[in-house]
Amino acid sequence: MGEIKDICEYTLPELTDELLSIGEKKFRAKQIYEWIHKKKAVSFDEMTNLSKDLREKLSASYRVTVMNPEKVLISKLDGTRKYIFSLYDDNVIESVFMRYKHGNSVCISSQVGCRMGCTFCASTIDGCVRNLSAAEMLAQIYRIEKDTGERVSNVVIMGSGEPLDNYDEAVRFIRLVSDSDGNDMSARNITLSTCGLVPEILRLADEGLPVTLALSLHAPSQELRENIMPIARAYKLEDVLSACRTYFEKTGRRLSFEYSVVKGVNDSREHAQKLANLIRGMHGHVNLIPVNPVEETGYESPDRESVEEFRKILEEQKINATIRREMGRDINSACGQLRRRHLNDKGLRAD
Predict the structure, then answer these.
(1) If you average pLDDT over residues 291-302, what whole number do you get?
(2) Quick one: which of 204, 158, 157 has its CA closest to 177?
(3) Distance of CA 33 to CAs 19, 28, 39, 187, 200, Å?
(4) 56 is catalytic
(5) 107 three-class SS
(6) Which of 25, 87, 191, 247 is the Cys-Cys partner for 156 at CB 3.0 to 4.6 Å?
(7) Which of 8, 9, 94, 128 is labelled catalytic?
(8) What distance in Å separates the CA atoms of residue 240 and residue 196, rounded to the nearest whole number?
């Protein structure tokens, strides 16, 4: 028997070719595609406008990827939901559902773990186990929509993993989730976060996808960035920012600069002034993120007053900056921490 294929991975043209190759009529592809991406079917049995014979034929050679929640934490303050999803190979990932006035947002993972090594992030402590498929990225959103009964209108690829380290599947995911024949989310409502993989940023600029690029900057100098982000040794800060400028020029999309504020590391007035000088004129917005303490690093969260002062210095220098609103404070788990805690509770290593 041949390999079971993931039918959720196919674009509509690919699915059409696949159905024709197994002797089915062309129009069946659109029916199946709509069941998966519009009606969010989790099995072929749900596809009631297909014959029983076809459903059995599909079940024998294809699968529909679904996410199974192992744990869901729900905030009593704002309804934020933090999910631990189990995968087919017993790995687990995290996703977060957040309600905002402008619509519902989901933060998805793109890898099991991460190999970028940022010192303030729990996701990377045990390295990267494997990449997620585009279907596994989609399934996080689709399961959350089914779970909440609410439409997701915004996605941030900002959970565990570096999406540009999983470039092909991340781009396939964006094309699938924004396809007007399927899920039909505006690509402008998708944010991709990267720690600065220069070749992939330049590739993404040429994809014709108007997604927002969020650069995990976290330091205003090359030396400090190397200390807290090992990837900075491979890609110099000036080259990363040059790639970001190219991205803006080719897409017209405003850049976002993510800056995790760590007490005593990158939170001084001098750091704020250097940051303003670094990104002035780059059509960007700074998202200040008070770091969540990670037991293994010893990093501490700054007090609110120092973060406010940091923001004030940026704004005095005409740099647009906000302090990230902390959603689900009563179920707080920084990126990667919920997964690690879950694995520890089960007596498993994260790798």
Answers:
(1) 76
(2) 157
(3) 11, 8, 9, 19, 29
(4) no
(5) strand
(6) 191
(7) 94
(8) 6
Is the C-alpha dihedral spanning 131, 241, 320, 299 positive or negative? positive
Q: Which of 121, 128, 244, 335 is catalytic?
A: 335
How far apart, in Å, do the first and last CA atoms of the chain sit? 32
Mean pLDDT of the region 112-140: 88
Rounded distance between C-alpha atoms, residue 203 and residue 121, angstroms? 26
Whole-Å CA distances, 168 to 64, 110, 235: 20, 11, 20
Tell me: pLDDT of 351 over 50.
no
Residues in a beta bridge with 287? 258, 322
* Residue range 90-115: mean pLDDT, rounded: 94
DSSP H or E run through 190: strand 190-194
Residue 121 has φ and ψ, to the nearest 5°, of -115, 130
Q: How far is CA 193 from the centre of its chain?
A: 7
Chain centre to alpha carbon of residue 254? 18
What is d(CA 142, CA 159) in angstroms, rounded to the nearest whole number? Answer: 16
Q: Are strands 5-6 and 190-194 parallel, antiparallel or unpaired?
A: unpaired
Q: Which amino acid is at 72?
A: V
Give residue 2's pLDDT band: very low, low, confident or very high (50, 70, 90).
low
Judged on CB neighbours under 10 Å (0-12, 13-18, 19+), 238 is exposed
SS3 108: strand
Phi, psi angles (nearest 5°) of residue 165: -80, -10
DSSP string spanning 43-95?
SGGG-TTS-HHHHHHHHHHEE----EEEEEEE-TTT--EEEEEE-TTS-EEEE
Residue whose structure tokens are 């509509």: 12
> Of 9, 31, 43, nearest to 146 (Cα)?
43
User: Across the strands, what pairs with 94?
Assistant: 84
Is 335 a catalytic site residue? yes
